[in-house]
Amino acid sequence: MVKNEGIKVVIGEENPQPGLKELSIVSSMYKAGEKTVGLIGIVGPKSMEYSRMMALVEYISKVITDLRISQ
After folding, report:
1. Which contiguous run of DSSP H or E holds residue 53?
2. What is the pTM for the complete model shown?
3. Which residues 6+ apart lie within 8 Å of 62 measured at CB?
4. I need a surface site. Which of 12, 33, 42, 58 has the fewest CB within 10 A?
């Protein structure tokens, strides 16, 4: 498992669920103020472009957090 600022990456065999052993998950939480209110992620093959998926998840998480703050 890799954590990079709010991004979490779980690759293949690191997944606790047997059905996910051949997949990877890139995820991040989003917040409303200081409170965590949700999780966004991408499930894909172990050969995915990790840096690109991490940047995408980080960006979307930030957009959702910013939208929730402005409401």
Report:
1. helix 50-70
2. 0.82
3. 30
4. 33
pLDDT surpasses 60 at 2: no
**Residue spans of beta strands (DSSP E) within 1-71:** 2-4, 7-11, 23-32, 35-45
Taking the CA of residue 10 as centre, how many other CA atoms within 13 Å lie in the half-sphere pointing to its CB?
Answer: 15
Count how many Cα atoms sit within 13 Å of the Cα of residue 15 in the half-sphere of its side chain. 17
Q: What is the CATH number of the domain that holds 49?
A: 3.30.450.40
Q: Give the domain extent around 40.
A: 2-70
Instruction: Give tens-digit pLDDT for 6-53.
Output: 899 999 999 888 899 999 999 999 888 778 888 999 999 999 999 999
Structural domains counted in the chain: 1
